[in-house]
Automatic annotation (TrEMBL):
Signal peptide: none annotated. The keyword Membrane applies. The lineage of its organism: Bacteria, Bacillati, Bacillota, Clostridia, Lachnospirales. The keyword Membrane applies. The chain crosses the membrane at residues 6-24, 31-48, 83-108. This is Stage V sporulation protein AE. Keywords: Membrane, Transmembrane, Transmembrane helix.
Length: 118
């Protein structure tokens, strides 16, 4: 049942974002920033964690989950380090994901040859 919940929660998030992209004139980059910020705000209000508990990876893998992860890291760092935790908390909590994206992006650039569109 966990796999089914992850599938439909993640699918619902992706479908809503696709509708947002299709029905508005927002550029994809702005929608991505909106999703990260929305995940952080929902996490701050305690709304997103129950969704993650129910949907598992379906809720934690999309950009909403990344924003929630940043929020949790900042909150933990502020609680332990004070106001300076604002600067380190988000990066500390998401360092593995950011590092993986950079490493795999670099490896992909070594394997594939980019081509300019004409």
């Amino acid at each position: 049942m966990d796999y089914l919940n992850a599938f439909w929660v993640g699918g619902l998030i992706c479908a809503l974002v696709q509708i947002l992209l299709d029905r508005t004139k927002l550029m994809p980059g702005r929608v991505m920033v909106l999703l990260v910020c929305l995940g952080a705000v929902l996490g701050a209000f305690g709304i997103y964690q129950p969704i993650v508990d129910y949907g598992g990876a379906g809720a934690s893998v999309p950009l909403l989950g990344f924003g929630n992860l940043l929020w949790k890291g900042v909150k933990k760092a502020v609680d332990s380090q004070g106001l300076l935790g604002i600067f380190a908390g988000g990066l500390t909590s998401s360092a593995v994901g950011i590092s993986a994206a950079l490493i795999f992006g670099y490896l992909a650039s070594l394997v594939f040859e980019p081509k300019m569109k004409k």
